[in-house]
Amino acid sequence: MPVKLELLDSDTAPILTSFLYSAEYPLLIGIVVDEEVVAAEERIEEKKEIEKEKEKEEKKIQKEKEKIEKEKAEEEEKKRKGIKTVRCSGVRSNGERCKLTTETAEKKYLCPHHMAFTDGMDRDGDGVKEYRCTFIKKNGEQCKMKGEYGKKKRCYHHD
Ligand SMILES: [Zn+2]
Ligand SMILES: [Zn+2]
User: Fold this and answer.
1) Which ligand is in closest contact with the Cα of 116?
2) Ligand 1 centre from 122 Cα, in Å?
3) CA 138 to ligand 2 center in whole angstroms
4) Ligand 2 centre and the CA of 74: distance in Å?
């Protein structure tokens, strides 16, 4: 019968050990002691489990709080700078207002599709200049495609 003597104090352990070997009902004592030890261990485990859960929960709440605080601070910062979400005032080819938006302190916004285009500008800011395709169509119109076309200045249709 396993008796966890290490869990008993040094006064009780030797007495109990000798008792277990000499008593008339060592088995019975063994069971009683063992169950108590196991029950105590289980309680400790349970408590640890509960505390762990609690800690996890608290951490989660703390994180959530920090997130909200951060968002609030960012919101305040934007307000202070007058930054709002502004929708592109360009009109799409189907006549609908462009749906693209940006966060800016400016009153007006034109997305890269709708901003006034001049050759050699870098609309996406990646350091590569953009050009309008130089191809002239049969009807005499210049192709409307614009992009990072390199030296050839031709879109993928007219390359
Ligand atoms: Zn647009
Ligand atoms: Zn083209």
Assistant:
1) 1
2) 16
3) 12
4) 43
Is there a contact between 71 and 63 (Cβ–Cβ < 8 Å)? no
Give the C-alpha distances (Å, rounded to integers) separating 16 from 13, 20, 143: 5, 6, 99
Q: Which of 157, 95, 90, 137 is nearest to 146 (CA)?
A: 157
Give me ligand 1 centre to Cα 102, in Å.
10
What is the per-residue pLDDT across 20-54, written as a single tens digit (0 to 9) for each?
555 555 455 555 667 777 888 889 999 999 999 99
Global pTM? 0.44
